[in-house]
């Protein structure tokens, strides 16, 4: 469902991606793991059709992200950017309406429910905490009926209880909707807990990939975090 | 269409409920009213002190001779016959009629030298008041009829009032609307940059073109809301100015002056709209270069304002010779329409709309998701 082949991308002197190849199947949650500047966000932006790769290509739902046909596919793709902040002067409900309006769907009730904001959904977003804002954006995107989810640090700024809930929702979404999910995070323990497979990215290159348990075993590590450190130090 | 509507509705909801936006609107409203009061007083003082004028007086009544003498004491230079050439040397020429009596009707001639020359000077009234005091009749016993020479044509009093209104409205359109449109674009785009929402929007079915078209539309809509509020403030503003320099023509003529034919207003509005779109495009690009709303609000007016400064010429003179510069076209359009040069009006409008279409088309073509997110033009 989601495929990237030998992606390369340069911003001036910075070579953000050198060689990234990955694949995500239907109903699968795949983690992108790497430090800041590893190339995770650039990869997701290419998969979302926001950036054109300098070399290689990406396909989502069988269509290349640089082709004119991808405009139609975007209806089935939801991308959660890492730093996005909802508009202060809108209420939570108005923001959901805005996002759903962009997709041409009307599923506000479900989004309000899974956001966990309760009656605060009708308050202005400027009164929300960082975690509440993040939950609002995640809930808006999880209810547009996407078949490919691209999530960049979805639990960033969210407290432990709600982070667990978001992970549960994402996992459930992939299984129940048979969606392909790319889950990027710094938090490797988080990725380990929800991802079927993971890709280690460092300096714009995929250094290894596999099932979390297998990778830990391969590097004789107690967890994914240790495995990643050993993988990039080879 | 759904994404377009969602974008426009979101922008209106977001910005119209911003305290910053509402405060700036209220601030502008109050400042304009205050400026009207202050500038009215200042213009009154300046006019009293600096006007040079000719007084044309031939055979007239004794009262007329005394009126001419009072005008001379106020700085007028006496002549026996009126000639339009006098207007090359003097701001105004006041003609004292042969049958002068109180209440009197005097003709005042001026050459069009910008908006300030479309009102009769205060010394005409001042001399009449002094005369009235001398002979013991109630004040303001004079009706000054202003005739304005414009491009070889003489405009009669009712037409002059219309001319003044048209040029004033044209100047306001020319200056305020583009500035408001540009400022609103700065807010609308700066907000998206600050919130990093371009990525979110552009990853949905909304295309970069939809986003740009929606931004331009909502910026124009918001600017017109602002303009409507400002126009209400300007009514108070000019009310204060008119109190400081009262109209010298009769009430009947002043009443006629308010009615501006749509045929004159429409081309001015069309020219302004076209130039506003062109400037909106420029403002859009400027706003996408910065990272937050405050910077956008600072940067965009700095980019747009200097382009509008030449329009100030309209207050103190004509825009003749400046027609090659598009951002004075609304006034040039008004000028040409007023003297019946419709071929020029159409040429100005064609230029303005060609410019607007070129700017908007360029933005729609070159603004891509790559550019909005990374700030780099795609090769």
Automatic annotation (TrEMBL), chain A:
Write out the entry's keywords from A to Z. ATP-binding, Nucleotide-binding
User: What InterPro entries does this protein map onto?
Assistant: AAA+_ATPase, ABC_transporter-like_ATP-bd, ABC_transporter-like_CS, P-loop_NTPase
Any idea what this protein is called? ABC-type multidrug transport system, ATPase component
Task: Please report the stretch or stretches of sequence annotated as the ABC transporter domain.
Answer: 2-228
Q: What is any Pfam family matched here? A: ABC_tran
* A GO MF term: ATP binding
What is the organism field in this record?
Pyrobaculum oguniense (strain DSM 13380 / JCM 10595 / TE7)
Statement: the UniProt record of this protein carries the keyword Cell membrane: no
The protein's matches in Gene3D superfamilies, at most eight in alphabetical order, are given as: P-loop containing nucleotide triphosphate hydrolases
TrEMBL record, chain B:
* Bilayer-crossing regions: 20-43, 166-191, 212-239, 259-287, 299-319, 345-368
Report domain ABC-2 type transporter transmembrane positions. Answer: 21-323
> Coiled-coil segments, which residues?
none
Provide the membrane topology annotation: Multi-pass membrane protein
The protein's organism comes out as Pyrobaculum oguniense (strain DSM 13380 / JCM 10595 / TE7)
Signal sequence segment: none
What is this protein called in UniProt? ABC-type Na+ efflux pump, permease component
The protein's location, in the record's own words, is: Membrane
Alphabetized, the UniProt keywords read: Membrane, Transmembrane, Transmembrane helix
Give the superkingdom in one word: Archaea
Any Pfam family hit: ABC2_membrane_3
**GO MF term set:** ABC-type transporter activity
Q: Which GO terms describe its cellular component?
A: membrane
């Amino acid at each position: 469902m989601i495929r990237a082949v030998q992606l390369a991308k340069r911003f001036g002197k910075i070579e953000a991606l050198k060689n990234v190849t990955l694949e995500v199947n239907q109903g699968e949650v795949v983690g992108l793991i790497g430090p800041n500047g590893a190339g995770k966000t650039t990869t997701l932006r290419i998969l979302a059709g926001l950036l054109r790769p300098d070399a290689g290509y990406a396909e989502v739902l069988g269509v290349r992200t640089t082709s004119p046909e991808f405009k139609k596919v975007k209806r089935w793709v939801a991308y959660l950017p890492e730093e996005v902040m909802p508009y202060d002067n809108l209420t939570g409900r108005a923001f959901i309406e805005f996002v759903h309006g962009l997709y041409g769907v009307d599923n506000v009730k479900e989004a309000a429910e899974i956001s966990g904001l309760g009656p605060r959904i009708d308050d202005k977003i400027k009164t929300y905490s960082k975690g509440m804002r993040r939950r609002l954006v995640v809930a808006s995107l999880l209810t547009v009926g996407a078949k490919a989810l691209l999530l960049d640090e979805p639990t960033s700024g969210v407290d432990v209880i709600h982070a667990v809930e978001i992970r549960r929702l994402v996992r459930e979404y992939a299984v129940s909707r048979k969606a392909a999910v790319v889950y990027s995070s710094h938090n490797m323990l988080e990725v380990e807990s929800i991802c079927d497979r993971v890709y280690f990215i460092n300096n714009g290159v995929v250094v290894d990939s596999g099932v979390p348990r297998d990778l830990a075993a391969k590097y004789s590590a107690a967890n994914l975090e240790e495995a990643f450190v050993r993988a990039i130090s080879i | 269409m759904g994404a377009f509507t969602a974008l426009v509705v979101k922008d209106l909801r977001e910005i119209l409920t911003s305290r910053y936006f509402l405060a700036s609107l209220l601030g502008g409203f109050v400042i304009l009213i205050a400026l009207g009061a202050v500038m009215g007083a200042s213009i009154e003082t300046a006019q009293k002190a600096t006007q040079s004028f000719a007084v044309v007086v031939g055979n007239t009544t004794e009262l007329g001779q005394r009126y001419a003498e009072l005008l001379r004491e106020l700085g007028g230079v006496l002549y026996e016959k009126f000639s339009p050439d006098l207007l090359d040397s003097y701001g105004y020429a006041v003609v004292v009629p042969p049958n002068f009596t109180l209440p009197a009707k005097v003709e005042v001639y001026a050459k069009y030298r910008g908006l300030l020359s479309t009102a009769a000077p205060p010394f005409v009234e001042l001399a009449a008041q002094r005369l009235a005091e001398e002979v013991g009749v109630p004040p303001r016993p004079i009706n000054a009829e202003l005739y304005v020479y414009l491009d070889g044509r003489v405009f009669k009093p009712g037409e002059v009032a219309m001319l003044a209104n048209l040029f004033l409205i044209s100047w306001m359109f020319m200056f305020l609307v583009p500035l408001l449109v540009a400022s609103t674009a700065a807010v609308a785009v700066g907000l998206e940059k600050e919130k990093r929402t371009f990525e979110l929007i552009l990853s949905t079915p909304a295309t970069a073109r939809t986003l740009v078209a929606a931004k331009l539309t909502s910026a124009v809509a918001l600017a017109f809301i602002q303009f409507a509020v400002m126009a209400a403030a300007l009514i108070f503003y000019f009310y204060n100015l008119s109190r400081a320099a009262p109209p010298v023509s009769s009430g009947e003529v002043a009443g006629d002056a308010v009615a501006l034919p749509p045929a004159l207003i429409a081309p001015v509005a069309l020219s302004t709209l076209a130039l506003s779109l062109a400037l909106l495009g420029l403002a859009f690009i400027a706003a996408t270069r910065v990272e937050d709303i405050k910077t956008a609000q600072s940067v965009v007016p700095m980019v747009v304002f200097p382009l509008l400064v030449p329009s100030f010429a309209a207050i103190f003179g004509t825009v003749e010779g400046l027609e090659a510069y598009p951002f004075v076209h609304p006034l040039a359009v008004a000028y040409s329409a007023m003297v019946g040069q419709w071929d020029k009006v159409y040429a100005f409008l064609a230029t303005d709309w060609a410019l607007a279409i070129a700017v908007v088309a360029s933005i729609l073509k070159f603004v891509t998701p790559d550019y909005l997110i990374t700030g780099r033009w795609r090769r």
